[in-house]
Design brief:
Length: 696
């Protein structure tokens, strides 16, 4: 459970009344929060006591906590935190829960501090209503200051308040995205008022270039039509030789780029996001100081107008893997270090090869070649992995064939730096990767959403769906959980047949650093996505830890179906899927035979599809060999969904009823009886059980 709240740790909760303390206590346990109480309430377990004034106590916690949950009057909380609140980029999340736990209010630091999201998570835990008052959430839009967070982008300079206000007011906001994932674009509601550019030059629009739109759909600008977009009529401007379209004048602009904005001042408010796409290749003399390397990188970035926060990491030759200056820099800046053998580096085409370097280290280029290799997906250098949990992967070199395919991602050729004050010499080159480095450890939440109705889903599963950056599942289930979605979440709904694609996509996103919820109906571990995801992870040589995996069980179809008809599963039972898509029919038939013979109450999953109609008849025939034709059978279709249908019937008439892929069939055992509208299997075979047999 604590994984769900890990972005908010350390989390402090404060209550000042016995009821408040009781209400917050289970939440604190689930969320891994410390519950602080005044001395007068010392009799509660797992709590901490503060002495003196609450104001002083909060002040002492303020700077080293990510989030606060108060069970106090909102006004009192406002007064408590007023002297501490400074800046929305650094203040912790502050939430207020009322004593009756009817509401959880996101009071302060809703976006960057995460209070809006935490309010939703806590609302799930308490079964209460989150109060989120930011305008973006209301419009179904991600906060402007949040949209890059899942992808590990850094916020650059800008007037975040004004740009957010422009979005909230439905003004046209221009987006110039030159790097980083465009997944966020595909999730916007149709009413959004963003206009996407991307050629990087300010004010250039509609010159016939294709802009990427959403998830890869292309949209052509300036094809001579005037069209409406959102609420804004697009006007037509002509300049010699070109027709430009302005989607009404943008009132604000968002830059998404590894570059710094050019010196031009803009007449509209702007903000910058920096995806981490820059890989700095470094070659240096032994003993080069960290300071010199740092200065060289800073100078290079400055000369080429690159944003330092857009640096993803450092790449160099493997013999520099122990170079102190590089290691110190990586530690200081939290940069990953990627190192490559000379054989790999020498196979890369570079603009400035050097014979001297080649003679010294066995490759004509270190900085440029390493920058290019660093910018490639790590899988380029990893062999296809073999199965087995915890399997080791040997590093393999890029074959010369692959090397020829390497795109030239270099954006800064090698620059050489020396300084009279610092020891050593350093060469710096920079390449830009296609996909940004997120710097985050991905998580896979494998979630069972239950039979359909949201109140049949566990609180933990709901919380996990809300918490995830991306939610992947079959479109019907995605629709069922729609109320749990958060604005800005990446939703990928795939057709029913594409389970393996769903699993692979989830793993891909998680390996990249996202928290991904994979949803199954019922329980994810019962004919669900959990097995597929774990199988695929195993096949890719997963170490069992990264990405992290957490399961969220759900009410499976047999429980849901049983609960609608009484207590048919009271004694030993089993589940058998009649789908022979992944299992040979002989195996299924053998299990049916065994279950029938051993008198298990049996739940049949996937009983019949449009193309697979025979299996249910065969199953009936097998059961009739061992069970009385009058054996009670429940046929439950779409349990807990709007179109639910329940039929109680006997084994011999089983095929008279419509059975499809939304149906679960429960076949009673020899003791199961029908009583009115109820199907009852005795708990034991003494007493009532005997009568039930005779009722049979
Ligand atoms: N993971 C799911 C099972 C997926 S297999 C679970 O644990 O429930 C799909 C089969 O489950 C369907 O063909 C049907 O037999 C059964 N099923 C799923 N949801 C159902 C529902 N709401 N009502 C009846 N049967 C259902």
């Amino acid at each position: 459970m604590s994984q769900l709240f890990q972005d908010f740790q350390p989390l402090a909760a404060i209550a000042t009344t016995p009821i408040g303390a009781q209400k917050l206590q289970p939440l604190c346990q689930a969320a891994g929060a410390t519950l602080w109480l005044p001395e007068s309430l010392t009799n509660l377990e797992n709590t901490q006591v503060y002495t003196g004034s609450l104001k002083t106590h909060i002040a002492s916690l303020w700077h080293n906590h990510r989030a606060f949950v108060f069970c106090l009057a909102t006004g009192a909380v406002v007064r408590l935190i007023a002297p501490l609140v400074k800046d929305k980029s650094s203040d912790p999340a502050v939430l207020v829960v009322d004593q009756a736990t009817r509401f959880v209010i996101s009071l302060c630091s809703g976006h960057q501090g995460g209070a809006d999201q935490l309010a939703q998570l806590i609302a799930h835990q308490l079964g209460t209503t989150p109060i989120v008052t930011g305008a973006a959430a209301d419009l179904g839009l991600p906060g402007i200051d949040l949209l890059g967070v899942p992808f590990g982008w850094y916020r650059g300079t800008g007037d975040w308040t004004k740009v957010s206000a422009a979005v909230a007011c439905g003004e046209t906001v221009q987006v110039i995205q030159e790097a980083g994932s465009r997944l966020w674009q595909s999730q916007l509601p149709e009413t959004h008022t963003f206009e996407f550019g991307g050629d990087g030059e300010m004010g250039r629009w509609g010159d016939g270039e294709m802009g990427r739109w959403g998830d890869g759909e292309m949209r052509r600008w300036g094809d001579g039509e005037t069209r409406r977009h959102g609420d804004t009529e697009m006007g037509r401007i002509e300049i010699p030789g070109k027709i430009l379209f302005t989607p009404s004048e943008p009132k604000a602009r968002i830059w998404i780029s590894p570059k710094l904005k050019s010196g031009q001042t803009s007449h509209i408010p702007e903000v910058e996001w920096h995806p981490r796409v820059l890989w700095v290749g470094i070659g240096c003399e032994r003993g080069t100081s960290k300071q010199l390397i740092e200065q060289a990188i800073q100078q290079t970035c400055q000369d080429y107008h690159l944003a330092i926060p857009a640096i993803a990491g450092i790449a160099t030759i493997d013999r520099k893997a122990d170079e102190i200056g590089i290691l110190e820099l990586c530690e200081q800046c939290n940069f990953p270090l990627r190192t490559f053998p000379a054989e790999v580096l020498s196979s890369v085409n570079v603009p400035t090869p050097s014979k001297i370097v080649a003679a010294e280290v066995g490759t004509p280029s270190v900085a440029e070649a390493a920058a290019i290799c660093g910018s490639l997906p790590p899988s380029t250098f990893t062999p296809p992995k073999v199965g087995g949990l915890g399997g080791q992967n040997d590093f393999v070199y890029v074959s010369p064939y692959q090397a020829e395919q390497i795109p030239n991602s270099l954006i800064v050729p090698k620059q050489i730096f020396k300084s009279p004050e610092q020891p050593g010499a350093v060469t710096v080159a920079i390449a830009q990767s296609e996909q940004e480095y997120t710097g985050r450890t991905g998580q896979l939440f494998l979630i069972g959403i239950g039979p359909g109705q949201l109140d049949q889903m566990t609180l933990a599963a709901k919380t996990a769906v809300t918490q995830a950056d991306a939610v992947i599942g079959y479109s019907l289930y995605i629709d069922l959980i729609a109320p749990l979605r958060r604005p800005g979440q990446i939703i990928e709904a795939l057709p029913i047949t594409q389970e393996r694609q769903r699993a692979n996509r989830a793993i891909e996103l998680a390996e990249w650093g996202l928290t991904v919820a994979v949803i199954s109906s019922g329980d994810c571990g019962i004919y669900g996505m959990a097995g597929l995801v774990l199988e695929q992870l195993r096949a890719s040589g997963w170490d069992g830890k990264t990405p992290g995996v957490q399961m969220f069980p759900g009410i499976t179809a047999l429980q849901a179906a049983a609960s609608r008809v009484g207590a048919p599963l009271m004694h030993d039972f089993c589940a058998i899927s009649l789908s022979d898509l992944l299992t040979p029919w002989e195996v299924i038939a053998k299990r049916l035979e065994a279950a029938a013979k051993a008198d298990f109450v049996t739940a049949l999953y996937n009983p019949r599809s449009r193309s697979r109609t025979q299996q249910i008849a065969s199953a009936q025939a097998i059961f009739l060999k061992y069970r009385h034709p009058q054996t009670p059978v429940a046929i439950v279709r779409s349990a807990y969904r709007e179109d639910e249908q329940i039929t109680l019937i006997t084994l011999d008439k089983l095929l008279d009823i419509q059975i499809d892929m939304l149906t679960t069939v429960l076949i009673g055992n020899q003791s199961t009886a029908i009583y009115g509208d109820w199907m009852i299997t005795p708990r034991g075979y003494l007493g009532f059980g005997r009568e039930a047999v005779s009722n049979g």
